[in-house]
Specification:
- α1 (33-48) crosses α9 (261-276).
- α3 (91-99) links the parallel β3 and β4.
- The chain is globular, with a radius of gyration of 20 Å.
- Helix content is 41%, strand content 19%.
- By secondary structure, it is α/β, with parallel strands linked by helices.
- The protein has helices at residues 33-48, 62-74, 91-99, 127-141, 157-174, 190-204, 219-228, 243-247, 261-276, 301-304, 308-318; strands spanning 21-26, 52-57, 79-83, 104-107, 119-125, 147-152, 179-184, 210-213, 235-239, 252-257, 283-285, 288-291.
- The strands form 2 sheets. The chain has a 6-stranded parallel sheet, sandwiched between helices.
């Protein structure tokens, strides 16, 4: 629960990067403020070294992601950042990128997981641990009488890992008296369908007393589902972008906070530039558990990450800029 502190991975000679063009393929940016801010952060970071960015929105479907990767290859980009889409679902275009000597970095991956074929580096936080934190918090606040509903999308590896981490922790610590029900939402339709899925789940399992959301963008629609059945159930989010609403009393009692896009984008830039210069490396990013005891009164970037400007400046120094 301590404040997040992060530093650049170390010095990197970026003299050969100036003038290069990179591609970012977002998982489903339209409804995802995290991916939007990641894209902005990456754009700003590449500008520092005189490089440019081509943006693609995968729209939550493998066919679109595959098309985006092939378009990035056709545009002769120097490197591709995959933000959140499991590369294992688009093996052929990732292999085509490798054949074209275009490295692919998977952002949002479990950093210690084996590399997917064609991917040169993983960048992300420990999604399993985020689920463990959610489960531990809910177990503690129900005196180990937890009956949770976990909202996630199986189309996102990070989401799946988070729910798997929570489920494993609950089984480990409270296998007899606790339970977890999964609600798997479609990234393309959750804005209209999720509330109904949550409503139906609560009707079928009236003992549910906690909501674990694998991403903050699912929380507003979970709340709609709760209201439909007249229930007030505490919610634990994930990512940190729902903090302002939580501070305002929307029902989210805790949140696992990730680094904001303003910083995450710099790590993306560092990772893909290392890959292009022939020194790819996995990178694990820190998270923080927030609730009313430590989330303060403001969700502003400066309030939550008081050292973020110095982190960006440290990246610039590490890149010789």
């Amino acid at each position: 629960m301590a404040p997040i502190r992060a530093e650049p991975p170390g010095p990197l000679n970026t003299s050969s990067i100036t003038g290069k063009k990179f591609a970012l393929i977002s998982y489903a940016r339209k409804n995802n403020v995290v991916e939007l801010t990641n894209a902005i952060g990456l754009q700003q970071a590449l500008t520092v070294v005189g490089a440019t960015l081509v943006n693609f929105d995968g729209q939550g479907t493998p066919d679109v992601v595959a098309q985006d990767i092939r378009s990035a290859i056709a545009q002769h980009t120097a490197g591709i950042v995959d933000d959140g889409w499991p590369p294992s679902l688009v093996l052929a275009p990732v292999a085509a990128a490798k054949a074209a000597n275009i490295p692919v970095v998977f952002s949002g991956a479990e950093p210690t997981a084996p590399l997917s074929p064609g991917v040169v580096a993983n960048l992300g936080d420990n999604s399993f641990q985020e689920g463990v934190l959610q489960a531990d918090y809910a177990l503690a606040h129900t005196n180990c009488s937890l009956h949770a509903v976990a909202i996630y999308t199986s189309a996102g590896s990070g989401n799946t890992d988070t729910v798997t981490g929570a489920e494993g922790e609950i089984k480990k610590l409270c296998s007899t008296d606790c339970s977890l029900v999964r609600v798997n939402v479609d990234p393309a339709t959750f804005t209209t369908a999720e509330a109904g899925q949550v409503e139906t789940t609560l009707q079928r399992s009236p003992d549910i007393n906690y909501v674990l959301s694998a991403a903050d963008l699912f929380v507003p629609y979970a709340i709609q589902g709760l209201k439909a059945v007249g229930r007030h159930i505490p919610i634990i989010g994930d990512q940190g972008v729902g903090l302002a609403a939580a501070q305002g009393g929307n029902g989210e009692v805790a949140d696992v906070q990730q680094l904001p896009g303003a910083i995450w984008g710099y790590y993306m830039a560092d990772s893909i530039m290392r890959a292009v210069t022939g020194v790819p490396r996995n990178e694990a990013l820190p998270v923080r558990l927030l609730d009313s005891s430590n989330w303060g009164k403001s969700a502003d970037l400066n309030a939550q990450f008081p050292n973020y400007v110095s982190i960006q400046d440290a990246f610039k120094r590490a890149w010789g800029r």
